[in-house]
Amino acid sequence: MTATLAKENVIGRPIDRIDGRRKVAGAAPYPSDFDLPGQVHAALISSTVAAGRITRIDRSRAEAAPGVLTVLTHDNAPALVDPPQNALGSTMRRPLRDDRILHYGQHIGIVVANTRAEALAAAKLVEIEYAEEDPVLDLDDPRAAVEDNPFGMASSRGDVPAALAAADVTVDGTYTIGAEANSPMGLFTTVASWQGGRLVVHDTTQAPSFLRIALSVMFEVPEENVRVLIPFLGGGFGAGLRLWSHTVLTTLAARVLDRPVKLVLSRPQMFHSVGHRAASRQRVQLGADRDGRLTALDHDAIAANGMGDNLPSPIVAVTPATYACANVATHERRAHLNIPYTGFMRAPGAVEAHFAIESALDELADQTGVDPVELRLRNYAEVHPESGKPWSSKALRECLEVGAQRFGWAGRDPAPRSTHDGDQLVGQGMAGASFEFYALPCTVRLAVDRRGNATVRTAGTDIGTGTYTITAQITAELLGIDVENVRVVIGDTDQPPAPQSGGSGLAGALAAAIQNAAGELAEQLARLDGRPGESFASLLDRHGLDELAVTGYSDLAGAATHSDVAPAGAFAAAYAEVGVDEELGVVRVRRLVSVIDGGRVFNAKTARSQAIGGAVMGIGMALLEELAYDPNSGRVANGTFGDYLVPVNLDVPDLDITFVGEPDTFNPTGGKGLGEIGIVSIAPAIANAVHHATGRRIRDLPITLDKML
Ligand code: MCN
Ligand code: MOS
């Protein structure tokens, strides 16, 4: 610690993860690694039909099975209180509420036994009869109850019908995207124990602070008597953002038995229990002049939602801010189906919206003969199109231009089917991307001690993103100490409340809170009369202090409401080259260039990993991933890693990733969220490349072989 309280160039450095060694050595405990003394094991009983009622449950054989301690179903379980809404506006139908079945795989009971094997065996012995109903599984099923504008996201500026009618050129496309699963590697786990009146839960959650509130409400215990622990999480991609019924049931079983209970979902259960990206259908209508300048944009989206569920599908949320266009209208609907609950999945809404809008823009480029990159530049939103305020930062132009240069776009022959490579048709496509600013309040506790070490504490977690590492880097730079001297204690709700790892909102909120804490600390130290260049250790020593601790806070969303600038999210552009085997219909990505504006990057290596992950997920979305429901039972028919296809190494070319842009002027640390932007423009870039290769416009993801034949 020096009088200037800072160390140059620690933020941004591509340092290795500070938790990396622990991870590869198996010393980083994931939820399934926790075992508590006296712990017993749970297995779920899941519905084998998609709709109807339970008419009979016979628990007797299961209860008599070896090792079984309890079997809880709706007709014998203690009642729970309904859960509250989370920060993303969704709640959950409380489990075991009644005899109704709303989807296949619904958790209708929990069995607890001494061993996991005994619990799994006994779960099969519970006899259940149903009065089955015909499930509603498809967005187009006329029986589906459709809500109009359920979240008030519909918007309108200007006069879209008039502008469309008057446009020189119009595009009208309907784009569909199949349901996709997050399928994180780490099987979701709950280990719940009641210690006196205190509930301690190890749970696979991206939102520990919210889970604490939810369990406190449902189990009627004060919040301070609930502790949620999630120091390491084996991937979430949004699956850990909601409160899920297996967590509640495990906690309930632990309460009934007054013993620690552990539940680990199986891989097929993951596909029915922790959400998925909803199937959606969008219609995009564009109006433009002959030079490709947009005069009208109409965006209508419908997404699937679980029966009785209320999850927002923010597909049209970003639309009004994407391009400078005087007349823009958005419409939002959702259809309730007998499908497992939907959830959020990386860039929820934004990635669907961009597939439709960026595909439609490619159609417009085709019709007007304007180059696709030039088309986007002609419609560039120099200021926020809704508020008219200047962006806090926006380097989308640079994303487009740097991407074009790295990719070699200039040499592209715009005519479809113009390039061959052996028996492959080769095509090149691109897409831009805009992301919404998102932030929640964040609190940290920052302490420095006499040995010159700092400790940062917060409830927020690291889902694989690099939270540990950037927390240490930001703290080290602001305090002028080495990264090795920063201890990071996260993923524990006994620490100050933090946002979920979600909406690409944690890093920015946390960084701002740490900066606030560092400022507070500097003031306190100033009061201690620090000498120029004096270290922490010496200063605390002189005053006989062991430790100095302060609290830091950020509320960026709150600050945004009275800001002169429009706080920006990340921006990106992607350029893809595909090869299409016309005889077999196989599409392969040959090259992929991704350029991202995330403001100031906190760690060049972990940020790059985010971009790689997003690009790989984008390839999956474009070409491979789709949940298949059995039309009779509503079962996810491909709910294993053998059947649900995700990209493997052969599907992913070398990725060319670049970060551009300036530090953001709204976030005091200059950083913007970037965990999701990397997926947003990938699928439309690939779909546009497929069109360039073949002349065929596929408006339905994933682009599987059957659609190419
Ligand atoms: N980062 C950076 N500089 C910035 C912003 C971020 O270097 N200016 C890097 C940091 O390493 C940071 C990471 O990017 O830890 C993500 O930061 P941020 O964009 O704030 O996103 P969150 O921390 O809120 O993480 C959630 C985000 C989302 S919403 C999904 S979905 C997703 C994603 O992160 N799920 C992931 N990336 C994931 N990565 C992994 N390994 N696993 C997941 O489940
Ligand atoms: Mo991300 S889908 O907001 O966890």
Record keyword descriptors for this entry.
709 residues; Aldehyde Oxidoreductase, domain 4; Aldehyde Oxidoreductase, domain 3; 7-stranded mixed sheet; 26 strands; globular; binds pterin cytosine dinucleotide; binds dioxothiomolybdenum(VI) ion
What does this structure look like?
The protein has 709 residues and is an alpha+beta fold. Helix content is 26%, strand content 24%. The protein has a seven-stranded mixed beta sheet with strand order 3-5-1-13-10-11-12, with helices on both faces. Helix 8 links the parallel strand 15 and strand 16 (328-337). Pterin cytosine dinucleotide (MCN) binds at residues 184, 235-238, 346, 463-467, 470, 501-508, 598-603, 606-607, 610, 613, 671-676.
User: Which percent range fits the helix content?
Assistant: 25-40%
What ligands can be seen in this structure? pterin cytosine dinucleotide, dioxothiomolybdenum(VI) ion
- Termini separation: 66 Å
Widest sheet: strand ordering: 3-5-1-13-10-11-12
The radius of gyration over CA amounts to 26 Å
- The CATH topology annotation of the largest domain reads as Aldehyde Oxidoreductase, domain 4
Query: Main sheet?
Result: 7 strands, mixed
Unreliable residue runs: none
SS field, number of helical segments: 19
Mean pLDDT: 96
Overall SS class:
alpha+beta
Q: DSSP strand (E) fraction?
A: 15-25%
Q: What is the total domain count?
A: 3
What would CATH call the homologous superfamily of the largest domain?
Answer: Aldehyde oxidase/xanthine dehydrogenase, molybdopterin binding domain
Q: Label the overall shape.
A: globular
- CATH architecture designation of the largest domain: 2-Layer Sandwich
Number of strands: 26
GO molecular function, one term: iron ion binding
Pfam families: Ald_Xan_dh_C (PF01315), MoCoBD_1 (PF02738), MoCoBD_2 (PF20256)
Keywords: Molybdenum, Oxidoreductase
Protein name: Xanthine dehydrogenase YagR molybdenum-binding subunit
